[in-house]
């Protein structure tokens, strides 16, 4: 079913949501292969979405996501296995509990469909299938895991913040650590001289371990990627932490939760600094538009609390989807 790429097509510069050197999908598989891979992604995404629904319902209340089994919130009757099929069961039951007839709510199938679509998109580049067990293959897989994981985390956080006005630490902090761990793993597979930080127009220096290169390397690729990402996480956290502290000093009340700062750090951990800034910009823009719409319709005052984390998470999803082209376009404006 698949044709494999020749080595020279394996790695192209750039990639979704990463700054440099991530294998870019080169679609050599036929349409049938793409459809099959997308379908596998969608099915896995639907199941992941079903699990996200459990997290969304239970984590903000501090309940366990493992026990007890899924049950109706109204009558408490356990959900039968055949009533737990993502989306399909919702349609067959016409959105109502089989036992008490209470409405299940559109959030459940919406989260499942969204996650299914996200995973399908995340899986599509796998059709590029560089030579199995090659570095390019591992990095492609790593990139897909990162894309699916950050999407799932952002979907869950967006909805939890919308409903509860909070972003649980139990999602954000492990999210930051997992994103950073994936980046460190990615750094192990960088090609020689790839992602090196080279200084131009300065005295000649060379990093230890810079390999055969004679260039003016300040940091080698893995150092640049790992330390750069660590710095991005800290700076992004401090950016919103500082904003929050400044607001508190001026207005004597909280304008933003600490969760928002951790959420931006999470986006930076997975995507890097520039895409995180893009997420912040897009999130702020969306939140402002939403606030203006509420004010115009007289449904809010200046003191109304907005779930900023939901908008920031949406911005993060935009950055994961289209971050690299958008950032490159923006940087290109100044060249
Ligand atoms: Zn019920």
Summary tags:
335 residues; mainly alpha; 9 helices; 58% helix; globular; disordered N terminus; binds zinc ion
Low-confidence stretches: 1-21
Largest sheet: 2 strands, antiparallel
CA(first)-CA(last) distance: 44 Å
Q: What series of H and E elements makes up the topology?
A: HHHHHEEHHHH
Number of strands: 2
Instruction: Tell me the helix content.
Output: 55-70%
Q: Compounds present?
A: zinc ion
β-strand amount: under 5%
Radius of gyration: 22 Å
Average pLDDT, all residues: 85
Shape descriptor reads globular
Structural class: mainly alpha
Q: What is the spatial order of strands in the main beta sheet?
A: 1-2
Query: What is the number of helices?
Result: 9
Structural overview:
The structure is a single chain. Helices cover 58% and strands 1% of the residues. It is mostly helical. A two-stranded antiparallel ribbon has the order 1-2. The longest helix has 31 residues, at 221-251. It binds zinc ion. Zinc ion binds at residues 72, 74-75, 77, 97, 99-100, 102. Zinc ion is lined by residues 72, 74-75, 77, 97, 99-100, 102.
Write the layout of secondary structure elements.
Elements: H1 31-58, H2 88-92, H3 107-123, H4 135-164, H5 169-188, E1 197-198, E2 217-219, H6 221-251, H7 258-271, H8 273-296, H9 308-332
Antiparallel strand pairs: 1-2
Helix pairs in contact: 1-3, 1-4, 3-4, 4-5, 4-9, 5-6, 5-7, 6-7, 7-8, 7-9, 8-9
Residues 72, 74-75, 77, 97, 99-100, 102 line the site of zinc ion.
């Amino acid at each position: 079913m698949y044709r494999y790429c020749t080595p020279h097509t394996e790695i192209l510069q750039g990639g979704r949501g990463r700054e440099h050197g991530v294998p870019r999908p080169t679609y050599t598989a036929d349409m049938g292969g793409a459809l099959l891979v997308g379908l596998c992604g969608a099915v896995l995404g639907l199941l992941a979405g079903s699990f996200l629904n459990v997290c969304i319902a239970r984590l903000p209340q501090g309940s366990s996501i493992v026990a007890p089994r899924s049950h109706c919130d109204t009558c408490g009757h356990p959900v039968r296995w055949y009533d737990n099929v993502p989306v399909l069961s919702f349609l067959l039951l016409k959105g109502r509990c089989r036992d008490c007839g209470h409405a299940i709510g559109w959030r459940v199938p919406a989260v499942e469909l969204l996650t299914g679509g996200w995973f399908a998109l995340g899986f599509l580049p796998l059709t590029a299938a560089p030579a199995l067990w090659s570095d390019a293959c591992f990095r492609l897989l790593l990139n897909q895991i990162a894309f699916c994981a950050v999407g799932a985390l952002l979907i869950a956080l967006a909805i939890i913040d919308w409903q509860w006005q909070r972003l649980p630490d139990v999602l954000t902090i492990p999210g930051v650590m997992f994103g950073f761990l994936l980046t460190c793993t990615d750094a192990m597979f960088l090609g020689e001289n790839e992602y090196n930080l080279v200084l131009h127009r300065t005295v000649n220096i060379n990093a230890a371990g810079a390999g055969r290169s004679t260039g003016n390397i300040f940091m080698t690729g893995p150092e640049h990627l790992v330390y750069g990402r660590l710095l991005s996480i800290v700076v992004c956290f401090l950016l919103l932490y500082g904003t929050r502290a400044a607001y508190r000093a001026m207005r004597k009340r909280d304008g933003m939760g600490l969760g928002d700062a951790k959420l931006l750090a999470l986006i930076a951990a997975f995507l890097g600094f520039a895409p995180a800034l893009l997420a912040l910009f897009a999130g702020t823009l969306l939140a402002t538009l939403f606030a203006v719409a509420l004010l115009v319709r007289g449904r809010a005052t200046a003191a109304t609390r907005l779930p900023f984390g939901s908008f920031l998470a949406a911005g993060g999803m935009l950055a994961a989807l289209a971050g690299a082209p958008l950032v490159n376009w923006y940087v290109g404006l100044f060249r």
